[in-house]
Fold this sequence. Notes:
The chain has 477 residues and is α+β, with helices and mostly antiparallel strands. It has helices at residues 8-11, 15-28, 46-53, 62-69, 73-78, 81-89, 134-151, 156-178, 182-187, 192-220, 223-230, 257-269, 273-280, 339-350, 388-409, 412-419, 424-452, 473-476; strands at 97-100, 109-113, 119-123, 130-133, 190-191, 231-234, 237-240, 247-249, 283-290, 301-307, 314-321, 359-362, 368-373.
Amino acid sequence: MTSHRLPTEVRLSSIDDRQAVGTSARAARSRSSLATWVAPADRRDPVVQLAEQEVTRIQALLPLRHERMSVSPFTFYRGSAAVMASDLASMPNTGLTVQLCGDAHLSNFGLFAGQDRAVIFDVNDFDETNPGPFEWDVMRLAASFMLAARDNAFTDQEADDIVRLVASSYRQAMSDYAGMSDLAIWYDRISAATLEQWATEVGGQRATKQLNKVIGKAQSRDGWSAITKLTEVVDGNRRFLDQPPVLVRISDGEDLHPWLDKLLAQYRDDLQSDRRELIRRYRVVDFGHKVVGVGSVGLRAFVLLLQGRDENDLLVLQAKEAVQSVLEPYTKSCVYEHQGQRVVEGQRLMQAASDAFLGWVQAPNGRQFYIRQLRDMKWSPDIAKLPVGQLAGYAALCGRTLAHGHARSGDPVAIAAYLGQSTKFDDAMSSFARAYAVQVDSDFAAYTAAIADGRVVSGPADLSGDRILERHQPIVD
């Protein structure tokens, strides 16, 4: 197991020394060697690896997880970050450490609102974040675009070109960040204005018009859109809908209130003082469990409806269970005692602007959670509906965005020196993505075979009959 540390000591070195660190990393892992994927002889069964993740999850929801993952190789890939982490760890690495997203597939990027209410584009999922070698994130992102292109029936050449755009955009952006001051890197963000300029350069007025529609859609997905979609008014009181298994309203009996009040107080105490004062003005009026994502299905994910001064002053928070990162067995052990804190600190380090309500709590049963605002102008594209040109543009955007997160947490000078100015890195990422997509196809076939023969159960979550009691399992288990 390789130990990875964020390179704070490297930042104190001269530019020449930092560049030398980057170029010397080629001896540990040459750029051309990144092109190769050969499964090791002792590679673990991916079906077994996924089953190991599920031991502590809500068992009644696991069929839904498998149903979502079994749609296509791409949806399987979304839910199998643990498998790829093991695969990446089986190869040498550069040792150029950054704060990794850990699950940097293309659906984990998108638009959301910063604290100043401006819409920005950034990475938006950090459940697996942990320090590690920068190339792992790039390789996961590259392979996700290859799989998406194949799902969309693009030609081999179109898919290869799209993946090269991911890598070249990352490489060129990292070169730019290597020439910027640390403060300039820190304050940089991909704002709506930046997106509009990019759209104009890439696709002219038509692309700009399409982008403005997307931004408008994101702006409409504010806190009230979540309230409208997830709640109803009964006898003058707003409460969550009861739509099992995706949304399960949990009884608001008197025995629940002290438990929730204690958790909210714990969460509030760890916020910055200004947010602490803000959240103190709200009280919990309803509580539920909401299934989210693909690979996350089965993890406990609560939603809390809070009310402020009146019935029109409402806020929906999500408390999502945080467990050990899939990266941790292969990288640096988590430096935090609380896995929720790991997620929050990693997000703050990588994102240009993070949710004002980010925090973490620990339930009475010892389970750990991180908290964020639900659906605050969040938007990601429907990949299946993107034509070649738009997916290519999105690939370039994601590559640049990932480079920014890595430049904030790692050493852009060293990474840029490693990447160089040629297309060697771009070509290697394209070759790796194609080879790894074949591996994903094989894993997907093994996974669907396990579903077919009953070793893995896929289908709607069973919340009927006697199992309806498990609707309350998220609180008591």
